[in-house]
Amino acid sequence: MEKTADKNEAERSEDWSRFLKSRYKKQIGELSREYPYKRSLVIDYRDIERFGKAGIVLADELLENPGAVLEDVWDAIKDNQLIRTKDGKEPRGINIRFTNLPKKTAIRNIRSEDINKFVSVEGILRKITEVRPRVIEAIFKCPAGHFTVKKQKYGKFIEPDGCSVDGCTFKKLELIAKRSKFVDSQKLRVQESPEGLRGGEQPQTLDIDVTDDLANKVAPGDRVIINGILRSMQRIVKGEKSTVFDIFLECNSIEIAEKEFEEVEIDETAENEIKKLSTDPQIYRKIIHSIAPTIYGNEDVKEAIALQIFGGIAKDMPDQTRLRGDIHVLLIGDPGIAKSQLLRYVVKLSPRAIYTSGQSSTSAGLTATAVKDEFGDGRWTLEAGALVLADMGIAAVDEMDKMEKGDRSALHEAMEQQTISVAKAGITATLKSRCALLGAANPKYGRFDMYGDISDQINMPPSLLSRFDLIFIMTDIPEQKRDLAIAEHILKAHTVGELMAQHKKTPIPGVTDEYIQQQLKPVMPDIDPGLFRKYVAYSKRSCFPLLSLEAKEALVSYYLKLRGIAAPNKPVPVTARQLEALVRLAEASARIRLSNTIELADAERVIHIVDACLRQIAYDAKTGNFDIDKVVTGISKEKRDIVRVIKDAIRDIGGEGRRAAIEQVIEAVASKGFAHDKVREGIDMLLRNGEAMEPKSGIIQLI
Predict the structure, then answer these.
(1) Domain tally for the chain?
(2) H-run or E-run covering 665
(3) Whole-angstrom Cα distance, residue 227 to residue 118?
(4) 338 and 442, same structural domain?
(5) How far apart are the first and last CA of the chain?
(6) What letter would DSSP give residue 351?
(7) Which residues of the chain have pLDDT under 50?
(8) 412 in a domain, yes or no?
(9) Would you give the DSSP letter of residue 635?
(10) 3-state DSSP assignment of residue 42
(11) Whole-number pLDDT of residue 644
(12) CA atoms of 462 and 113, how far apart (whole Å)
């Protein structure tokens, strides 16, 4: 029986050497030249399967008995001297790594029969520890000078019972670290991807043990596929051995799944469909109608969201600065106008998106936390938050106005610099968060007052508002024609839903699938969500349009027209940020058509959108001009002027004492053409900001 096993082993070793010589000659040659800097031979599983009959046997053997197969491959290399180093010695510590396994196992589906099998898991990296050396071959010395070698496994350090030399009775041995062999090691924790979770399930995690040249290859927030051998380790509770074992994955290879939308696979038929769609003259209409079709109207908002999903082009400059390509959109609106519904739908459409609600998000949950637990052996480790996990996708933050003040400040850096700097518990790190932010907020007093100042009604700091490229104000104003259309649309959706539910339980005579499809038409997206995701991924991967001369001129002339409104004493209409926003939006508009040039039509489209936004948020009804200060600084030009005039009036009336009767001040300022109530507001502002005080009732004094 033993002879057959040996014979099989020799045959397998022979098969492996044939396979390596025929398929991996080039890689082996490269490894021989670059050893010891390159220590891994990466073998594609699909190549083994294609290697005739023997290949199929080898491939199955790898999945069932990976430990033995790794030994076989190593023997094949050693026996045939496939890898020769420069100095002619036999190379030690070469890793055999297998990638592209056929079946991915979900972390929650790992069972006891998978132990010691070769498995492949997919997920997001939550935490990593720092790289530390781990002993794999410990050398001990006894007082008589004999040496004992003890191989070490993952986990507990194993000491020999006594000296291995016959006749030597010494039991106490000393570890000689200098002569022992060490390997780099690191621990990772992978969490299953959020896409595949049902309702109230908590995402499950698996610990990964990484060694040698795989250490320090990945960072928290990366989407990875990890192939390795599942191992078990006995749990020890309060010094007692338990019957329950913990599992971990002994990592064999890591594939970084997330290469900018690469995880969306596009086959040839889908590619042809995408190209055909892009030439459709109605493409913009179709895309707008594919975003939340159950919500009636809001065409301009949906168009902006479509542009946001496609995004502009991120540009890395030679001087290491980065111009962001992501478009940030904020929806502020009355309750019940389906803002959250839009956000949820976008998360479904975008190839990488994360939804979070402001009320329950802390700044640590959005950015990153430093955690101290047994995972890092009691050391601090970094855990990536929502904005880091949404890297290269969309972060949808609902209820932004309900967030704590301190938590909102975490968004500033993430939106403009697109990084998140962490300085916590002795860890200083910069994480990438190249995501577009789609925010939703309610007005301060529940509903919008069309006559009040916008900045007073939004419970958000101006510095944050100015970072949004587009701010939409969605008001709910009764208007019979529109209301009727909305009512009909909503009832249509509900009726079809009821029909489908009833038909499912007890089939209704005369109701066919075609009839249901016909009824569903108004609430069905023009482009199927699956194809839409592929379209976005394809466009982001392959389309990088250039500004045409006409488009450039149109954008510049619009920007100059807005800036030209400003006379010396008039408000600043727009800042350079708006021009950057125009360029990003124009790029996204060309990407929707998969065009390589940004044409005049794109420029006009985005000018129309930006103009509509500015009219809502920065229009000053009194002067008929735009005043971007309303949004950027929170204080309009008019308010600043009033404050200056009030201060001058107090100084004129009060002279040296700088105090005056409030009524007198109001009269003096009102005579210069300011409204009484505005002057009162200005005086209140001075008192509130601590620039003036009221020593006694009715008297104001400058501080």
Answers:
(1) 5
(2) helix 662-670
(3) 7
(4) yes
(5) 101
(6) S
(7) 1-4, 259-260, 262, 567-573
(8) yes
(9) S
(10) strand
(11) 78
(12) 58
